[in-house]
Amino acid sequence: MSGSQAEDLPRVPQTAEDVATQIQSFIISQDLSEGARLPSERDLAGILSTSRPTLRQAIRILVVKGLVESRRGSGTYVTRRPQESLAASVHLMLDLDLESVQHLNDLRLWLETMGIVQAIERGTEAEIAEVEESLERLNDSTGNVSAWMSADTHFHSAIVRAAHNPYLTSIFESVHTTLIEYEYKSWMDEGTVPRWLRKTEAAAVTAIHQPIVTALKARDEEAARIAVLHHHYVMAQHLSASRPA
After folding, report:
1. Do 178 and 199 share a domain, yes or no?
2. 71 pairs with which residues across the strands?
3. 16: Cα separation from own chain's centroid
4. Together in a domain, 46 and 10
5. Which residues are bridge partners to 70 per DSSP?
6. Residue 26, domain CATH
7. Nearest-angstrom CA–CA distance, 45 and 54
8. Do residues 174 and 235 lie in contact, with contact meaning Cβ atoms separated by under 8 Å?
9. Domain that holds residue 73
10. Both 37 and 157 in a single domain?
11. pLDDT higher for 146 or 78?
12. End-of-domain residue from the set 34, 49, 78
């Protein structure tokens, strides 16, 4: 087949999953470290030879997986280097039994409860201040799904990191990102805003995080357990609403 004939062949459209994989490869090939800013949407679409709508969907996939984060009015940033992790195994287990999602959410509750209890005991003032700053960022992200999800993941991870146990942090983040991917699948696939993150509802969802910070700052274990449990109940409702038809 000649070069001109090859050029005449129709180009196979790239899926968002394909583009997400290409972005991960781009991060590795460019040796982008955590906190590095990705090129603008227009430039990245040109680099990857894809459409901007497909690129936006790919970015949503990576935001949910916790590999990049969106900062409102600033851009998209690398949060950690793409690599195989425990999340792949957790995700596979959920794929094999979608009915087990509430069991996975229970595990998330137990991990975050242990995390905040240990953070109360071991967390430094600087780490607690980081959690508080994460809440402010969460509040500022209301109305922007991508930025809100990034801020929410950062908030909960910051709490567990303050427990000073890297294994607990790794397991928690794997479980959390798997649940987030389940909860926001329609947003990833279609870009539709979940009911609980619409502008009329988002403030109420954000407000459930304030008692967690208040308890952590006061180093009040009982109040922390109650606040985390309340958040768990709300998340359970969202997961039920996200159940595939």
Report:
1. yes
2. 75
3. 17
4. yes
5. 76
6. 1.10.10.10
7. 9
8. no
9. 3-78
10. no
11. 78
12. 78
